[in-house]
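Subgroup meeting minutes
Present: P.N., E.W., G.H.
Scribe: E.W.

1. P.N. recapped why we're keeping a running log of single-chain structure predictions: easier to compare across weeks, and new members can see raw inputs and outputs side by side.
2. G.H. added today's entry (183 aa).
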Amino acid sequence: MQDSDSRQASKLSAHLFDARELGLSLKEVATDIIKKEDKEIQSHWYHSSKDADLFIWKDHKNNIIKQQISFYGQLMEWNIIEGVRTGLVIEDETTKLNGSALIRYDGELQKQTAQQGIDIVGHVPGLNAQDKIDIISNFIKSPLFSQMSPEEILSRYGIQSKAKTKPEWLIRILNWLGLSGKN
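Output recorded in log:
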């Protein structure tokens, strides 16, 4: 009898969490540009009716600077300043009214939540291959500004040049005419 009970419990737990099914159910529902001072940040929101959301924020060079996945009240987040952390999404009547949930971060990383979050991201159909690789890498390696050299920070995240450059076709024509193709 106990063997039968453990098989049923195993089937039930396998049915409760299916990373593949949850990942495949995430669809992009919104893309926005957030303007802050002179910077623009792209935000992408993937949502599932199965209680899961994936948010991605990118800088002007298309680098992911923050990412967050939540599923069944669990949360996993990475950003370039604080690294990876896990937590709980807490919703009550006041958070539902103002449209934002409260997040309570864990004191230490919850490995099971982290692994489940990574597994889900691996199955999101709307993510391009490079974004999927970057998101999973950020969750696993947790790169931080504080661990990068100044040269690496500038090359990856450097300030967007406000100088307008000439289009490639114009440079080719100027070179063909023997005129300087430099800006």
